[in-house]
Amino acid sequence: ETGVTQTPRHLVMGMTNKKSLKCEQHLGHNAMYWYKQSAKKPLELMFVYNFKEQTENNSVPSRFSPECPNSSHLFLHLHTLQPEDSALYLCASSQALGGSGYEQYFGPGTRLTVT
Amino acid sequence: GQQLNQSPQSMFIQEGEDVSMNCTSSSIFNTWLWYKQDPGEGPVLLIALYKAGELTSNGRLTAQFGITRKDSFLNISASIPSDVGIYFCAGHTYGQNFVFGPGTRLSVLP
Prior knowledge:
A: 115 residues, four-stranded antiparallel beta sheet, 0% helix, B: 110 residues, mainly beta, five-stranded antiparallel beta sheet
């Protein structure tokens, strides 16, 4: 248990569906992240939020829409996905950006399959 | 952008052997982190390093922050089957995002 939870753990969706991934951290952190991990590829940073403000959108297609209502919760809204979007989606948190000595903690991930 | 290289990409070892792996960067970092990831799970933080030259242990794991601040090393002593997994390094610099290596896949033969 790392203090970062993600739901659901597994999701199968069709290309026309709309679904959301949820992440919650219980560590008192102020920065939250979404990563995509595909088979045999390095972690890809998607979005970064710092004190609820988005600070990074790493050229992610608009069919992925993040939402950060507060420092403890992060959502990833999905719509009209493509099969190549199938991957493990990881949420992480750390203390606020801009400093040093920070550690990043990951959730268990959501395994997404787009059919 | 910054990139990390990890070596080796994969390794097969006998149970009981010691393991060494490293991570190198073209840029300097202020923090080095080492993670282990099991299949279908998120990476779990093993060791965090904050100072050049620092040597830190966590059970059978020992990691070092290279004095050039461009590399880090992870050693596992007396490997056991549950050490199987992918080991990632990550670097962090003031005001920047974390940068991750591609991982070293460790397999332990009984």
